[in-house]
Amino acid sequence: MRYHNIVGQLTKEYTAFILLAFCFIFYLLSGLYFLCYAEGVEDDPFKSKNFQKFNFVTAGDFGCGDETNRTIDGMIKKKPELVIALGDLAYKKNPDCWFDIISPLDKNNKFKISFGEHDVSRGNVTYNQYLKHFNLIRPYYSFDYKNVHFLAMANAKNKLIPYNHTSDQYEFIKSDLMNANKNKNIDWIIVYSFRPFYSSVTSHSGQRELPDTYHHLFDEYGVDMVLQAHSHNYQRTFPLRYNETSYLPLFHPKIVSKEHILYIKPNGTIFLTVGTGGAELHNFTGKAPYIAEQFESHGFLNVDIASSKKVLSLLGTFYENADMIKKDQFIITKQK
After folding, report:
1. What is the pTM for the complete model shown?
2. pLDDT reported for residue 29
3. Cα angle at 175 between 172 and 178, to 5 degrees?
4. Could you tell me the strand order of the sheet in which 325-335 lies?
5. What's the CATH superfamily of 46-335?
6. How far apart are CA 240 and CA 195, in angstroms?
7. Domain boundaries defined on the chain
8. Poorest-pLDDT segment among 10-19, 168-177, 216-225
9. Residues 6 or more apart from 269 whose CB is under 8 A from it?
């Protein structure tokens, strides 16, 4: 009897080991479509019927050229429930060409924008066209979609639309994030803007005033992800927290995790530059130590959100316009 108990116990342990090993191998080969937990194996949240799911797509720095059309065509293929444009939209005084390109996605109020430098610097006529077209009363705003809170910042030009710590926008953002953090129906907080908070060295690197003013708010109120553009390339940081002890926190944020792809309850914000919508690309002259991935490609980021009663998962995938190739992928998981 004792022999059978020992054999049975070994068999259970051997089976568990094989299961975990299979899960790990599958994790490496499949691009993170299975999550392995210490207490067992969870269904793939992005395929399981036990999870509520939706997706949105995002990019910035579009223009009205061929690559812009390819970016929008790729977005259409993902059938998104939301589309977020990260500024520098048409690059023209009259944005009708861009409105025409995005028209297949610009339906049922699902197309959202932030304002870029070119969108506010060509006079009030262009700026007001965007406000009117997207039914906005001001350039910074927020909304809830299912269990996600989205906050749009307007940081194109401080002289035109102030965003420093004495501005009305700052007070709005502080109050908005605090309320979202208290809302029990909100599981994710995503901020989208134009100017990058953090960046490798490229044509438009990070601006010190932004992390100095806002990153501590992101830490305090649990912002999961910040989407940004202005630099015409793709960059993804590790999860970051504001570094109050550094003389130059812009260059030395606190890196919470150096895992490259999978982040479990990271307790930090991931900043993504997706200035890849169609404008001419910007090259890099180096790679910052807090950047997990960077490259020069046209395309867009698709974000899948999956939620169950216990587990929350976010899967980000960058698709290159050429043949919809997956150029980057990462996942954030946390408990509800």
Report:
1. 0.87
2. 42
3. 145
4. 111-113, 82-85, 52-59, 299-307, 311-320, 325-335, 262-264
5. Metallo-dependent phosphatases (3.60.21.10)
6. 17
7. 46-335
8. 10-19
9. 215, 218, 219, 223, 224, 225, 226, 239, 240, 241
267 Cβ neighbours under 8 A, 6+ residues apart: 239, 241, 256
Nearest to 270 by CA among 291, 295, 294: 291
Please report which confidence band the pLDDT of residue 4 belongs to, taking 50, 70 and 90 as the band edges.
very low
CA gap 270, 201 in Å, rounded: 18
Q: Is the dihedral of CA 314, 320, 321, 324 positive or negative?
A: negative
- CA proximity to 24, closest of 12, 35, 14: 35
Alpha carbon 323 to its chain's center: 22
Question: Is residue 177 within a helix (H) or strand (E), and if so which, with residue range?
Answer: helix 168-182
| pLDDT 10s digits, 239-295 | 999 998 776 666 789 999 999 999 999 999 999 999 999 999 999 999 999 999 999
* pLDDT in the model for residue 291: 96
Q: Please state the separation of Cα 255 from the chain's center in Å.
A: 17
Spatial CB neighbours of 322, under 8 Å, sequence gap ≥ 6: 297
**Burial degree of 234 (CB within 10 A; 0-12, 13-18, 19+):** buried
- C-alpha distances in Å from residue 311, one per residue of 187, 239, 306, 335: 10, 19, 8, 5
Please tell me the distance from the alpha carbon of residue 157 to that of residue 164, in angstroms, as a whole number: 10
